[in-house]
Design brief:
With about 100 residues, the chain is mainly alpha-helical. The protein contains 5 helices and no strands. It has one domain. Helix 3 packs parallel to helix 5. About 20% of the residues are buried.
Length: about 100
């Protein structure tokens, strides 16, 4: 495995661990109420700005993944889409780069 692929893989691990160490305890404390989390994301203008920033990044990544997967016939790259929406761009982007670089 090349050094860049190892880096992509390490960033995937960080992209899962870092957000989940905050999301899981918060969800446990709030009875796994997803809508309460969505409400918490919009408590002020700063957090709403971050939500929209990540939403646009996730949509852009999705378009890129779909486009390149069709062009390259690299269907395994589509795994980055659910990773992006179930965890975040912090996993989806390095995962796609890892899968793309094989």
């Amino acid at each position: 495995m090349t050094p860049i692929r190892i880096l992509w893989l390490l960033l995937c691990v960080a992209g899962v661990i870092l957000p989940m160490r905050y999301f899981i305890p918060w969800l446990q404390a709030n009875d796994w109420d997803i809508m309460a989390m969505v409400d918490a994301w919009h408590v002020n203008d700063a957090t709403s700005g971050l939500v929209w920033d990540l939403t646009v990044a996730a949509l852009t990544l999705t378009v890129w993944v779909v486009w390149e997967s069709v062009q390259r016939r690299n269907w395994v790259g589509l795994l980055a889409i659910p990773a992006t929406y179930f965890v975040g761009v912090s996993l989806g982007l390095p995962l796609y780069l890892f899968l793309r670089s094989r």
